[in-house]
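job 3f2a | input accepted
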Amino acid sequence: MPVAAADALRCWHDRPALAWPTRAGHETVLGVICHGGATDEAQAAPEPLWPPYPVPERWQVHGPVRQGRLGCVRYRSNGVWVFGTARADDRSPGGMEAAAWRAYADLFRVLEREGCAHLQRLWNYLPDIHGLDDGLERYRRFNLGRARAFAEAGRGLGAGAPAACAMGTRTGPLTVHFLAGRQPARAIENPRQVSAYHYPRRYGPCSPTFSRAALADLGGGVRVLFISGTASIVGHESVHLGDVAAQTAECLRNIDAVLGVAREHLASSWSLEALRGRLECTVYVRRPADLDLVRAVVTSHLGATSPAAQAATYLRADVCRAELLVEIEAQLALGG
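job 3f2a | predicted structure (336 res):
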């Protein structure tokens, strides 16, 4: 069942090069992610590279919302959509694995309470992502804790998982932002890559739990494609090791592949070039010194005068594999 127009969700950004469809009338903020900074000093967040200030992303709905707290999660909901943030201290007993389980277990309890069962998008920010926690890399501990929470909530660990990213930050507790609704999104995979939930055990005792992208109905005739954090991976192998320009170009080829699959599910006949030019990209760069080179590759691919190139945000963060130097996530709104 489509989302009713009265319950439609909208996104507003501080960089107006890409304007999402808007409606007349009062809109209420459902949730905020501050790309390149945190709205709360107790959160973990990547650091801004370009523009050199945080860029807020505000999710808005018509009418009243209620605010709640459950365990380590604070959230806002209008009964159709829920946006929240889980913060869990990974320095407590059990380390990162226990923190990830706690964050996701509480998150799923919120979704059950609000009747918004379907995760659309997740942003996971992990301090010291490549450090060791009881002899195992902290990102792999995170995957174990997340998978346990998914399993205990009766949710599948494979096909149909939400879009997501997992980035390393310098400071802060484990921070998970999430958007969920009453209707499921359509999961989309990349034919150039092995689905993350099918990675072999060489990448850890438990595979990551996310889809390469998700196509969601926001209501009011608007659909949004959430493209997960996308790296220089072909099949399941990291490629172009040590070459940040080639890695950036490979990220963009993977995003093009996802767009190609998404076109099959869009009613209108958008060309790949048209879709690419409307992308809203967040580019995570491991080494700040690589910013100019990464920006040049992204701008060339998107088109220097395109709204996508003008609206791209660049952040300093660590990618989930230590050998990867850049990762790109994106979203694309159509209709309205």
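job 3f2a | The two ends are 18 Å apart (CA to CA).
job 3f2a | closed
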